[in-house]
Write a structure and sequence with these properties.
The complex is a heterodimer of chains A (about 500) and B (about 270).
Chain A (H helix, E strand, L loop, with lengths): L4 H8 L2 H9 L2 H6 L10 H4 L13 H10 L7 H5 L6 H9 L3 H11 L3 H7 L11 H6 L6 H14 L15 E5 L3 H12 L3 E5 L8 H4 L8 H14 L2 E3 L10 H6 L2 E6 L5 E2 L12 E3 H10 L16 E5 L3 H12 L4 E5 L11 H9 L3 E3 L2 E8 L5 E14 L5 E5 L5 E4 L2 E4 L3 E2 L3 H5 L25 E3 L2 H4 L4 H27 L3
Helix pairs in contact in A: 5-7, 7-8, 7-11, 8-11, 9-11, 12-21, 16-17
Chain B lengths: L1 E8 L4 E7 L1 H6 L5 E5 L7 E4 L2 E3 L4 E7 L3 H7 L6 E2 L1 E6 L10 E7 L3 H13 L3 E8 L8 H6 L3 E6 L6 E2 L2 H11 L4 E5 L2 H13 L4 E4 L15 E4 L2 E4 H4 L2 E3 L5 H8 L3 H13 L1
Parallel strand pairs in B: 9-10, 9-13, 10-11, 11-12, 13-14
Antiparallel strand pairs in B: 1-2, 1-7, 2-6, 3-4, 3-8, 5-6, 14-17, 15-16
Classes of the chains: A alpha/beta (about 500), B alpha/beta (about 270).
The complex binds flavin-adenine dinucleotide (2 copies) and FE2/S2 (inorganic) cluster.
Chain lengths: ~500, ~270
């Protein structure tokens, strides 16, 4: 589990670390340029939804990159990490060429390092706090790339060790939802000896990692290995099971489940309620990405269709919008456009995704907002009316509020539009469980740090608690919930043992 | 995996299958549906639960061959398994004792109508059911419907069975003759549209059960959105039944046709294999 600051400091003074610190002069470390990730050429990669953009760094490259890390006395990078991964601990092992050990250090804190190395917004988290950025105004140590390398090395070496599982205690716990939050919770609880069953509404396990994030960013194989591991440790997965519909929480209690972890995500798509939004060819990003990623609509052999268009407009500036617009490119769009109401600097998407999208020829229409969709033949969208925006006073988020410019409307052609303006919490559990405290946004309220809801045996985390957030936070919640549920069940158990 | 334990042909294109699904059999209510997927490349399609047997742990589905997915499903035999089956989904039908209920079913829409007719009858209503089809061979579930109806009127477009004419003519006849307190209509969108127009004239509260195109069926994607009373609703979680007088049927029909060329392509691809 997580280490205290003390331990981190102590570790830094271990003989091998001291020796490593002395091996290179600070000046020499700083003279090294940040590694460049080799990528599949844009023209090549847009031929398929399933070609991962980033290829692999070599051992030499990662060892050199790790050498850049100064092994700071105060590793500020760790403050930037939402789950405080022991960053210098794993990087210094990479510098020594001990990749397997580096992966082990990552796994002490992160249940899904191969996933996080690919999808975390490092430039806003660990890398933003790196010494190089903070003190030298230079590119950060490529912490994300190093994390990805170590995790991939372990997976590809075929030596993934199935962690030791405590003796079964016979206590059954249920997980609602198989996204990153549910998976990390399941991993910790099975290690503690619980009997864990994960219920998933869809026919695939993995949540957004499968139906949302495309394979050109996160190959399914990477996720499947993690799921397979959990299976080998004894976690049971039940797909096609909607808790609250197929069976209620009470039914599950009757079936012997003693506690629940709700990680049902933020699966409800938002629309903008503007004229013409229900025309054919207008999708939520969830529908568009699900058709392609989960149902395989990019493949002729799949029975699920998806509409293709010469001109595709994607509304929004987050990761979901980038994934959608790049998917459109891969489905053959000549013009794939992002329409975003603020400026490029304010886009919430990962920087790397914006960069990749630009390379692939995606156009960015910023300070622009759709106000109406115009129908062509057969009720299919043919044009989007766009209004220009300017930045006004800062709003609650601290970003300058986009203000419409009257009379600036113009039309662009589009036969496919993807609306990627956010998601809301999945309402099923909040609506159907009596006595559960729910916020006005529809998120489940939990005691912070414990992840326990107003119903003592019901814990919750990930997007159902935070609204749309990130993989690393969802995963961190799962681990916190596991530790606290374990305490809770143990206490309850003792009380029962004393015959109260 | 859900095993098929019974199969019966109602017509060349309409098949009833009974499939193992013990939990769904227990939790389903009239008006609920399931999502089904056949094969690893299969599409997720919605089908109404036409009936259930809690003791045997089975549900029955009545499926009309339309395109690739329904054909693959109809081609399965007893002993085969349906790759994925999830449910029950959607809001159940709200059934009260209201007096006289006029139930209108068209084509394969009779399958989802059956459990509703049964529930209305059990709630103590007088139920008059109109079954409409293009011709005699396409009239399905007549005996089952009779069991739960006080009266059944069959209408065919070509007059090959029952009365000749459109469903709305049958409806007008009943409405002229007796006081109708509520109407429920399930069938092709165009039929439901005209049923709704008919009852609107007579101010009879009416619900229609919509067969929107779906993907997940759990409220996650919005493929199934319809406009009801000027507001966008999701058929899978807010429906499938809505106040028929408020549904924008023209939009709904346009959305149903949204994949015509793609569906045809898939069918040709399927037939080639
Ligand atoms: C397209 C897209 C791209 C993204 N890109 C990034 C990125 O680059 N980096 C990043 O950090 N984050 C990204 N995110 C956000 C991130 O994926 C989420 O924050 C994260 O997946 C939340 O995890 P979760 O486990 O809480 O929920 P989810 O991953 O949403 O999983 C919830 C699961 O619960 C299931 N479920 C819901 N209700 C029930 C029920 N009643 N019974 C059974 N099962 C149920 C759902 O079907 C789903 O599979 C992205 C999101 C999307 C949509
Ligand atoms: C809540 C609900 C309950 C339903 N219950 C039943 C049922 O009990 N029995 C049954 O046979 N069908 C039912 N349907 C319709 C069924 O889902 C469709 O017929 C099926 O999805 C068609 O798939 P396909 O691949 O075979 O045909 P496709 O190749 O996809 O389509 C063939 C033709 O069917 C039309 N079509 C496509 N999707 C639908 C759709 N969802 N509804 C109606 N027409 C469609 C197309 O416009 C096209 O003309 C229901 C639909 C919903 C939404
Ligand atoms: S089918 Fe996806 S939201 Fe209704």
């Amino acid at each position: 589990m997580e280490r205290s600051d003390e331990q981190i400091k102590k570790e830094r003074k271990q003989p091998w670390r001291v020796e490593l610190q002395k091996k290179n002069k600070a000046k020499d470390r700083m003279a090294i340029q940040r590694v460049v990730m080799p990528e599949v050429e844009p023209e090549e990669r847009i031929k398929s939804q399933r070609i991962e953009v980033n290829s692999q760094l070599t051992k030499e490259q990662v060892m050199q990159e790790a050498t850049r890390c100064m092994d700071c006395v105060n590793p500020t990078c760790m403050e930037g990490c939402p789950v405080s991964i022991n960053i210098p601990g794993f990087i210094k092992r990479i510098e020594r060429g001990e990749f397997q050990e580096a992966a082990s250090v990552l796994k002490e804190t992160s249940a899904l390092p191969a996933v996080c190395g690919r999808v975390c917004p490092q430039e806003k988290q660990c890398e933003a706090k790196c010494f190089y950025v903070e003190k030298l105004n230079r590119p950060a140590v490529a912490i994300g790339y190093l994390e990805r390398f170590a995790a991939d090395y372990e997976r590809e070496s075929g030596t993934i060790s199935v962690p030791v599982v405590a003796e079964a205690n016979g206590v059954k716990v249920a997980v609602v939802g198989s996204g990153p939050s549910g998976l990390s919770f399941a991993g910790d609880m099975i290690k503690l000896g619980y009997e864990v069953t994960v219920f998933e509404a869809l026919h695939e396990i993995g949540g957004v990692l499968k139906y949302g994030i495309p394979e050109f960013r996160l190959p399914n194989a990477v996720v499947d290995v993690e799921i397979e591991n959990l299976r080998m440790m004894g976690v049971k997965f039940v797909a096609n099971f909607i808790v609250g519909q197929t069976a209620s929480l009470d039914d599950l209690k009757e079936a012997g489940f003693k506690a629940f972890y709700v990680a049902s995500g933020a699966g409800l798509p938002r629309f903008m309620n503007i004229p013409g939004e229900n025309l054919n060819g207008i999708f939520s990003s969830n529908e568009y990405l699900t058709r392609v990623n989960l149902m395989g609509a990019d493949n002729v052999d799949s029975d699920t269709p998806v509409l293709r268009g010469k001109n595709v407009v994607v509304v929004g500036g987050g990761n979901t919008a980038m994934d959608s617009v790049r998917t459109a490119k891969r489905l053959g769009a000549e013009r794939a456009m992002i329409v975003y109401r603020r400026s490029k600097e304010e886009m919430p998407a990962r920087k790397e995704e914006v960069h990749h999208a630009l390379q692939e020829g995606v156009e960015f229409l910023t300070l622009s907002n759709p106000v109406e969709y115009i129908a062509g033949e057969n009720g299919r969208v043919s044009q989007v009316k766009i209004q220009k925006m300017e930045l006004g006073e800062p709003d609650a988020s601290g970003r300058r509020r986009p203000v419409p410019i009257e009379g600036s409307e113009y039309l662009i052609d589009a036969s496919v539009v993807v609306v990627a303006v956010g998601v809301s919490p999945n309402p099923l559990i909040p609506n159907t469980v009596k006595g559960l405290n729910v916020s006005k946004w529809g998120t489940i309220e939990v005691e912070q740090d414990k992840m326990q809801s107003s119903i003592p045996e019901l814990f919750a985390g990930g997007d159902i608690v935070r609204g749309g957030a990130t993989v690393i936070l969802a995963m961190g919640d799962g681990r916190k919930a596991a530790a606290n549920m374990d305490n809770y069940l143990k206490k309850k158990h003792q009380i029962q043992a004393r015959g109260v | 995996m859900n095993k098929i334990v019974e199969k019966e042909h109602f017509s060349e294109r309409v098949v009833k299958i009974v499939v193992e699904a013990p939990l769904i059999a227990k939790s389903r209510k009239p008006g609920n549906f399931v999502i089904v997927r056949v094969g690893e490349q299969g599409e997720r399609i919605p089908l109404t639960i036409a009936g259930a047997d809690i003791q045997k742990g089975t549900i029955s589905l009545v499926v009309q061959k339309m395109g690739v997915s329904t054909t693959k499903l109809c081609d399965l035999e007893v002993g085969d398994c349906i790759t994925d089956l999830v449910g029950p989904l959607g809001q159940p039908t709200e059934i009260h004792q209201v007096g006289t209920v006029l139930a209108c079913g068209g084509g394969v829409g009779v399958a989802p109508l059956l459990p509703i007719v049964e529930a209305y009858k059990k709630a103590g209503n007088r139920v008059v059911t109109i079954l409409a089809a293009r011709s005699k061979e396409l009239v399905i579930l007549e005996d089952e419907v009779r069991k739960w109806s006080d009266e059944v009127i069959v209408m065919t477009d070509d007059g090959s069975y029952g009365k000749k004419g459109l469903i709305t003519e049958g409806m007008e006849e009943v409405i002229r003759r007796e006081k109708v307190d509520e109407c429920v209509t399930i069938g092709p969108a165009i039929m439901m549209k005209f049923c709704a127009l008919t009852t609107k004239k007579h101010a009879i509260p009416t619900v229609a059960s919509l067969n929107a195109i779906m993907v997940d069926g759990t409220g996650m994607c919005g493929a199934c959105r319809v406009t009801v009373g000027g507001k966008t609703r999701f058929t899978c979680v807010d429906g499938p039944e809505f106040d028929a007088h408020k549904i924008d049927f023209d939009e709904m029909m346009a959305r149903l046709a949204g994949y015509k060329p793609e569906e045809q392509e898939k069918m040709e691809h399927f037939l080639q294999q």
